[in-house]
Amino acid sequence: MSSVDRWQLLFRALSFAAHKHAHQKRKGRSEIPYLNHCIRVADYLAQVACIEDAEILAAALLHDTVEDTDTAVEELEQEFGPMVCAMVMEVTDDKQLPKQRRKQLQVDRAPHKSYGAAQIKLADKLANVIDVVDDPPPGWSLERRIEYLDWTERVVSSLPQANSALLKLYHRTLQRARRELSS
User: Is 52 a catalytic residue?
Assistant: First the structure.
């Protein structure tokens, strides 16, 4: 893929995600625009993991579009191709399933992720750990926040081929999160 094609793919993905998440806010008290989370996940992959693969970065920007917007799988594949779509679908929960089942499936399916999907999942969990500590959803008890951290650790520890720099940052962040929540 030429550098022009890479940039075009990334900006199309960013624009698509911005449109789809336009009226959504994150669950935290500060209600940041949802798109900020998608950008942060892609940024961790580019800046920390040094991933240059445009399809992985595009999938990171799009990782919540099928799960949390009205985006159809077919629409995503038509717009971004089968590789990007496949990575997005690997990290997408089936919202028709009960929450506890979805969480268990993330742990069970983690060892079978492709390289790109594993990195996206890791970056997503890193971003979520930070949010659970620094900007938790209203109404989340301390116990629920700690349980969430434990669950992310189970998911991350099961991922194959995790980028070592990203994994180190996740573990440092998790340790900081546990210290802050226990004080």
Answer: no
